[in-house]
Amino acid sequence: MNMKPLLIVSLVLLNTITFAQTNVLFIGDSLTAGYGVQKEHSYPSLVEKELKETHKIDAKIINGSISGSTSASGPSRLKWYLKAKPQVLVLALGANDGLRGFKVEDTKKNLEQTISIAKENNIQVILVGMQMPPNYGEQYTSSFKKMFSDLLTKHHLKSVPFLLEKVAGEKDYNQEDGIHPNEKGHVQMAKNVMPTLLSVLKEKK
Amino acid sequence: MILKIIHRELKSSPKFILLFVLNLAIGLMGLAAIEFLKQGFNEELASKSKAILGADLALSSRIKIHSDKEELIRQRLPVEASTKVVSLFSMGLYNGQSKLINIKAMGEGFPYYGKITLLSGNELKDMKDDEIYLYQELIPQMGLKVGELLKIGEAQFKVKDFIADDPGQNMQFGALAPRGYISLEGLERAKLLQKGSTAFYSYYFKLGNKVKDLDKVKEEITKEIDDNAIRVEIPATTSQQVSRVLTYLNDFLGLVSLCGLFLSSFGLIYLFRSFLHERRKEFAIFKFLGLKKSKIFFIYFGELLILGLVGSVIGTLLGLGASPLISTILTSVSGQEVSFSLNMKSIFVVLAIGIGSTLILAPALLLPYLGIDYKILFSFTDEVQKKWRDYFLFLPMVLFYWVVSVYLSNSFIIGSIFVGTFSVLTIIGFPLGNILLQKISVPRSKRPLERKLALTYIVRHRVTTLFVFSSIFLSTFLMILIPTIKSSLEKELEMPTKGNGPSLFLFDIQEEQIGSLTSLAKKYEMGELSLSPMVSARLISINGEILKTDTKEALTREEQREVRMRNRGVNLTFRNTIGPSEILIEGRLPHSYSPEDPFAEVTLEQNYASRIGAKLNDMLLFDILDIPIKAKVVGLRQVRWTSFLPNFFINFGPGVLEDAPKTYLMALSNPKDSDINAFQSETAKDLSNVSVIDVKRVVDKISGIIESMSIILLIMAAVTFVAGLLVVFSLISHQARTRAVDISLYKILGLKGERISRILNEEILIQSFLGVLAGVTMSLVMAFTLSRVIFKSTFSFNTLEISIISLTILAVIYFINSTVVSRIVTKKVHDVFSDL
Questions:
Q1: A11 and B CB contact within 8 Å
Q2: 8 A C-beta contact, residue B55 and residue B204
Q3: Contact (CB<8Å) A3/B599
Q4: Which of B67, B73, B251, B505 is disulfide-compatible with B693, CB 3.0–4.6 A?
């Protein structure tokens, strides 16, 4: 295999891109990185497969997700991946911010910054909604939820209302840590993301 | 009559009694002190571990534990009490500000062991539904005071007090948020547990002292519960660092006891052999007077019993005397209560070993003398003729020491290696040495007469030479072995950041935040101990072989867990130097990468490498954020865990990962004792994503334990040295006395006292030098083996220490030999012969 270092990542990424392809960049945390499951079983990979096999859409999924990452890393990560010329950004950050009790305003600021960079580069953003578990208290969970709706309204974004819909709190869909989805959970997350992504990609055609 | 004879015999040999008893007592003193302290140390650490867990057994899970699991424990084990604890994160609201708090809702009676001390000096117990007890850091962080109301979930809680000491948190490397304790009823009031809540559910069990083998219980319960989501915990597994130090200490102390006992036994063998040798004609007289062999045996056996008893009691008392002193030193240094415990079992063990090691001498040393003939009364023969079968009489001694060695070293392997090495060396060494000495002839050169005579004696009296050589060899071996292992362990426990260890860990630092953070650290006069970039990746293959990552392929639960772990990915870093907390043990550091290179280079942490089955020169394939990177393993590192600094399993060389998305990890020291809370608040204000974890408390606690361990190592090495010197004293003075006839013959031939002393000194010094040399070599080989195999630490030795010990041994030998020889030289010749 001809290995190339990250230093010349742009060449590698460009090599794999054909003109007909739409490049979809996922920037997220452990949920999107597929923490604890095989890479092929992570929901971005499942989405790519389904787009190709079921919907015959030639989309190249680039998974730039990092376990444990917070929204603070969003802007720099997106800047780095600009070399791969993504046309769509699935922004799935914020869960770790919430779990670590960050101020909602700070998370909002980071996400906004990432969205702005995407817009400046003509990248269509799909904002993936995150919700905080009820144990964080009504005030925090609702202000966290509101932050996402504010961003959607302000930036006129397409969205996935809640990434962990039908997954959060379900024993069968999660790993033994109770937080990270298992293979079944990722199948469900792919289902959650697919309608929005599909509509965006169809628009792009 | 036998008792009368024993009394007379002992009365006539006060010097022998003194030496014998002293030898046994000093050898046992170390053993006794170790036994008493080991027990106390283990008990203290066991109770500390129990206090960390707060119970004897716990079940915990991120998913609600079904009550049938609790029932299973109740049915299987003698449960005295049990309770539930729920731990979760929530936002505390006060005065318009919110802060993440780790809420721990405890059931009645918890913790069963240890106590949570409050700032008011009271102990946390009997919480009311509307009360909360908070960690002190929330005072400056939120401006909270006792009596104020804090909103958690849907309920208001009155701040009742703040926590001063929490054993459950003492050994954990910080936490994301300060803790707050409420009752289970309080948790219900707050309505924090709803569908979708993330919490940690635990059941804690108090089993009292009824269950002995908790490790086995844990294993069985884990199997019976058969649920990967539920973790079974026992006190011993709550703190890895503590159990690691404990294991080192236990193994080392066992080894010290073993060496001390072996050394003391050599001394005893020598002394008793010397005693019997001097009494050889009395055996003949006893027989001549009609005493049966069995009666003669019992006379000397009785003497051994009395001496063994007296020596063992004195040794036990000396050990008892030394233990409080050692425990006081350890307690003051470590800040941990290291008490010595006086229990019947320890006393019995010490006395049994002491008396046993004395009585076991009887068959091997005494029985050959029982065959003595009356002829010896009328002959000048010095040696008692030995038969081949007499050597088999040593078998009970070998068996006895084997059993004792396994017991003292707590390990069948170490015990067997010890006894096996000695046995093999004796069985092979003696015939080999005999042949070697036969082949050597003293060249007729123009050497001084003294040297010629000395060398001739060494070559001709092969048995004596081999005996002296092997005794010095074994004594040196044992005396050097302990300080050498001590050096290796000290190296392992050495704290590279001693006195200036990390106080804070900071993570999720973005590249553009490094400057601000460094300035902030400078403002608070904090030292930057490490700043490491961190890049996420997945390991795909090793040498082209794809790693198993599909959970469906994993058959057992353990395999499934392993596969899950693999799928969690790995964190990489890059740097071109070795960190202060690492040692390169194999290979080299990675070179800088240039685009023409076919692959990058990495070093791996040695335990990680063995876990994934990677070796030097293996090719690894990583998936770094969707980009395949091939890297060759060019070096293996050992991480110095005592540095308490963040470390990485995989380290790339420069030139590969610099541009990759990454975050940074930082460790800061706080030498000026700056206000950590103010630093944390300022970080939270300006760099809100950076998480700051206070690790000072746990670093201090573990450092204290390590320091007390180092002192134990030093004291025990000193005890072994003293025991060794006593052995050398016994053996050299015995050896010199056996030369009385030779000295007289030299005198008859006209040699002056000075020259005679020189001959005998040269003789003993040549034998001793070779013995010491062989002993040092052997101890280094053994220490290397034990360091690598048993202690799994880096081998290290202190040349100066070894040289000082070796020279001291030679100096003591020279001094004792000169003193005894000069005393014999001044004796009149006819006195010497009349003694015979």
A1: no
A2: yes
A3: yes
A4: B505
Burial class (CB in 10 A: 0-12, 13-18, 19+), B423: middle
Q: How high is the pLDDT of residue B162?
A: 95
Which residue in this structure is represented by tokens 């979708």? B196
Find the catalytic residue in A30, A42, A45, A69.
Answer: A30
CA distance B425 to B470: 9
Handedness of CA B800, B801, B802, B803 (dihedral sign): positive
Nearest residue to B506 (alpha-carbon basis) of B383, B679, B731, B738: B679
Of A29, A42, A180, A186, the catalytic one is A180
What is the SS3 assignment for A17?
coil
CB-count burial class (<10 Å; 0-12, 13-18, 19+) for B589 = middle
Is the ipTM higher than 0.90? The answer is no
CATH superfamily of A21-204: SGNH hydrolase (3.40.50.1110)
- When CB atoms are compared, the residue of B176, B199, B626 closest to A64 is B626
Confidence (pLDDT) at B496: 59
Residues B683 and B507: beta-carbon distance below 8 Å = no
Selection from A150, A131, A149 nearest residue A141 by Cα: A131
The average confidence (pLDDT) of chain B is 81
Tell the residue number behind the tokens 């790993």, with chain if given.
Answer: A175
The DSSP bridge pattern shows strands B527-542 and B619-624 to be antiparallel
Q: What is the pLDDT of residue B744?
A: 81
A30 is catalytic: yes
pTM of the model: 0.70
| Interval A130-161: pLDDT, tens | 999 999 999 999 999 999 999 999 999 999 99
The separation between CA B388 and the C-alpha centre of its own chain, rounded to angstroms, equals: 41
- Kindly provide the b/e burial profile for residues B150-185, where b requires at least 16 CB atoms within 10 angstroms of the residue's own CB: bbbbebbbebbbbbeebbbbbbeebeebbbbbbbbe
Domain locations along chain A: 21-204
Maximum distance among all Cα pairs of chain A, rounded to whole angstroms: 53
Q: Residues with Cβ < 8 Å from B402, sequence gap 6 or more?
A: B415, B416, B419
Ranges of residues in chain B with a pLDDT under 50 are none
